Amino acid sequence: LALALLKSGLAAPVKCAINQTEWKVSSRSISLRWSSLGNPCNFSVTCSSHNALYRVCQPTQKSNGSYECDYNGLEAGTLYSLRIVSLSDGEASNLTLQTDPLPPAKFEIKKEKITTTTLQVSWSPSLGKVDRYELQLFDSNTQKNSGDPCARRHFKK
């Protein structure tokens, strides 16, 4: 029966569904990988943010049938909207990913403020969206966290 349906053209073609989407994010790049049962499929990927130009990527198909697309030169700590679209049948998948923020450009220990019980530090804001900073104190002899609950602090921006 299935063969008869295929010969008569009644069977629907396999759609280019976007499966098993994986990604890797760094401070300046996003790499996407996905698979699709429909073969061959033709995809387009778009990437945009509130302050960046709209960018299109033509994915590379790998020998295992997966597809890959890389965006480099992105802004650190920025939220990006990505859309994978099958140009064959319109199947689509949307992702929102954020690049990693950069560490502060300037970190300073105020040496004149150091006492046996006090340490004062300051740092410049990191590029991009940062929700909080974490400051940890380590024992200089063992290079391990001192175990003191005061040795690890979170600071909201």
Please provide a written account of the structure:
The termini are far apart. It contains one helix and twelve strands. The strands form four sheets. It has a four-stranded antiparallel sheet, with no helix packed on it. Strands 4-3-7-8 form a four-stranded antiparallel sheet, with no helix packed on it. Strands 9-10 form a two-stranded antiparallel ribbon. It has 157 residues and is mainly beta. It is elongated, with a radius of gyration of 24 Å.
- Kindly state the mean pLDDT as a whole number? 81
Q: What radius of gyration results from the CA coordinates?
A: 24 Å
Order of helices and strands: HEEEEEEEEEEEE
Query: Can you summarize the main beta sheet?
Result: 4 strands, antiparallel
Total number of strands: 12
- Strand order across the largest sheet: 1-2-6-5
Estimated helix fraction: under 10%
Overall form: elongated
- How many DSSP helices? 1
What structural class should be given to the helix and strand makeup? mainly beta
Please give the alpha-carbon distance between the first and last residues.
65 Å
Query: In terms of per-residue confidence, which ranges show pLDDT below 50 for 5 or more consecutive residues?
Result: 1-6
The fraction of residues in strands falls at: 35-45%
